[in-house]
Amino acid sequence: MENKKTHKFNYNWTLKDAVFTKDKGKVFSCFACGGGSTMGYKLAGFDVLGCNEIDPKMIKAYKVNHNPKYAYLEPIQTFKLRKDLPKELYELDILDGSPPCSSFSMAGNREKDWGKDKVFREGQAMQVLDTLFFDFIDLANELQPKVVVAENVKGLLMGAAKSYVIEIYKAFDKAGYIVQHFLLDASKMGVPQRRERVFFIALRKDLCEQFIEQKDIFTFAPKIEMIFNETGITFGEVMENCEDDSREITTHYKDLWFKCEKGNSMASVNNGNGFNNLKLNEAEICPTIGSSNSIMMPNKPNYLGENHFSLCGTYPLDYIFKPNKQYIIGMSVPPVMTAQIADNIYNQWLSKIPLV
Fold first, then answer.
1. Distance of CA 336 to the CA centre of its chain
2. How far is 117 from 129, CA to CA, in rounded Å?
3. Could you report the per-residue pLDDT of 54-95, keeping only the tens digit for each?
4. Cross-strand partners of 278
5. Which of the four, 148, 347, 350, 354, has the lowest number of CB atoms within 10 Å?
6. Fold of domain 26-229+333-352
7. Cβ(318)–Cβ(267) under 8 Å?
8. Is 30 a known active-site residue?
């Protein structure tokens, strides 16, 4: 079934039918996970050369679906120190990255975890998560791409975490970039999911002159707009566009499903327990898909199927998921969200920068 509304990028798509023009510039992706951002850049017409990722399962999924020219399985702390990187990576239009962000998430321990070594779900080396953003900026300092795009959670802009934003700005300045940040809502960008994320978008200083505007009496920044107001896509529309492969609930949550009102969590009928078990409402937009929260159909006591997750996450329906589809989608920037941002960067900046 065709989408009912017109959007710049289609959330219901397949890799086999996609046309990637690769004529808008070169991109390299860090913390690439299964390749959500990579697909977004491809949809917007960019040529994604490859990725850096620490998780062997994630990079395996990335390789299967993207066949990258370059793929580096190692921590960014060592990757940023490499002196054997190909010349192409020193000629990038965009360096992209989503540094792991659980230390700043409003759902986690936040301040209690800051500065501590943490390990990811798949068992990689211990890392201090809240310094990975600065390792990423170190890599930008080394490669000097025209533009740097870094994604993170909304919680980075809240409370004491704001001090990290100040340090991020300082680090970008030292690396030779003028940076701005934007809090964006995927549901206004053609994504059938309420997902707010902050994006830091930096332009190399030597390219800034023709784009500079005065933001306030103290701040000058390269002008770029990131305003999106596409019509929201309800879960009901997703259901109409989706082959139903939902799975029956077999736990005690099945009885709770009948008691729970649409749009609420099972905690509302289970003495406060089961907050991450959500019953959707077909008249509303799907809430944020996490890597492990249990999301249930609104019309029958079933868990969402893989097709539902793909459409809500704007992943192609024929994407090969290994290991777990929900985990990869929950950890990724929705491809259509990235495509919207990349399209703006190209139209407002990159297309106007003279070729050297």
1. 10
2. 7
3. 999 899 999 999 999 999 999 999 999 999 999 999 999 999
4. 265, 295
5. 354
6. Rossmann fold (3.40.50)
7. no
8. no
Q: What are 27-63's pLDDT values in tens digits?
A: 999 999 989 999 999 999 999 999 999 999 899 999 9
Q: How far apart are CA 234 and CA 286, in angstroms?
A: 7
For residues 234 and 192, is the Cβ–Cβ distance under 8 A? yes
Rounded Cα–Cα distance for residues 181 and 254 (Å): 42
Instruction: Provide the CA 248 distance to its chain's centre, in angstroms.
Output: 29
- The domain locations on the chain are 26-229+333-352, 235-329
DSSP 8-state code for residue 349: T
Can you tell me the distance from the alpha carbon of 176 to that of 138, in angstroms, rounded to the nearest whole number? Answer: 11
Name the packing angle between helices 36-43 and 335-348 (round to 10°): 50
CA distance 190 to 336: 7
The DSSP letter of residue 77 is H
Helix orientation angle between 132-143 and 162-175, rounded to the nearest 10 degrees: 20
Q: Judge contact between 76 and 124, C-beta under 8 A.
A: no
Q: And the tokens for 238? A: 């997703």
For tokens 């080394």, the residue is 142
The structure tokens listed for 122 are: 């798949």
Sign of CA dihedral 291, 188, 342, 155: negative
How many CA atoms, within 13 angstroms, populate the side-chain half-sphere of residue 285?
A: 18
Residue 220 pLDDT level (bands cut at 50, 70, 90): confident
Which one from 30, 33, 101, 260 is the annotated catalytic residue?
Answer: 101
Asked if residues 27 and 47 have their Cβ atoms less than 8 Å apart, the reply is yes
